[in-house]
Amino acid sequence: MAYQGKFTFVQIGAPNRSLIKSYADIINAVENEANRINWKFKSRNWQPILFLKKHHSHEEIIPFYRSANFCLVTSLHDGMNLVAKEYIASRDDNDGTLILSQFAGASQELHGALIVNPYDIEQTADAIKTALEMSRELQHHKMKQMRRMVMSHNVYAWASSILHSMASIQN
């Protein structure tokens, strides 16, 4: 209850594969749970969850990246690495915290992130609490570390690595 009225969880959920029944069922279940939580805990000027269920352009997402206290990426298998890296790239003030699934490939290189098992609800909840209560100094230290990695491991470095590999195979 300490965060009631002070913290809103924004879920940006692009509806992909919504024509597949199992995916549509999951989206409906998530939406129903968000509505249940909102009705239980909302106040006159606040609701705990904002579920944005539509395709968003990059320009629409950037303000969310820049204003979020943290970004939660809970992939159940490798994926969503670009979301994690876009969040980091947008944090030019070096604040904010990344909470990242251990199953996302980016968890191997983004050492400043809080790494969670998304199947472990308590661990994920503890990571959210840690992110909300983390000192600005520690946020800055971790974010600078991750921003250095993202800036140096860009598409040009990736392409160069592939070309060097290819050249070494031919020799």
Question: Your description of this structure?
Answer:
- The strands form two sheets. This protein has a three-stranded parallel β-sheet with strand order 3-4-5, sandwiched between helices.
- The protein is globular.
- It has 171 residues and is mainly alpha-helical.
- The chain has helices at 21-41, 58-67, 81-90, 121-133, 136-152, 155-170; strands spanning 9-12, 49-52, 70-73, 97-101, 114-116.
- The chain starts with 8 loop residues before the first strand and ends with a helix.
- The longest helix is centred in the N-terminal third of the chain and has 21 residues, at 21-41.
- It contains six helices and five strands.
Key attributes of the depicted protein:
single chain, 171 residues, mainly alpha
Task: Please sum up the structure shown.
The chain is mostly helical. The protein has helices at 21-41, 58-67, 81-90, 121-133, 136-152, 155-170, and strands at residues 9-12, 49-52, 70-73, 97-101, 114-116.
Mean pLDDT: 90
Structural class assignment: mainly alpha
Outline: globular
Q: How many strands, which pairing sense, and closed or not: the largest β-sheet?
A: 3 strands, parallel
- Low-pLDDT parts are none
Number of helical segments?
A: 6
- Please write the string of helix (H) and strand (E) elements: EHEHEHEEHHH
Strand composition percent: 5-15%
Our Rg estimate from Cα atoms comes to: 18 Å
Please give the order of strands in the largest beta sheet.
3-4-5
Number of strands: 5
Helix content: 40-55%
Oligomer: single chain
Distance between the termini: 64 Å
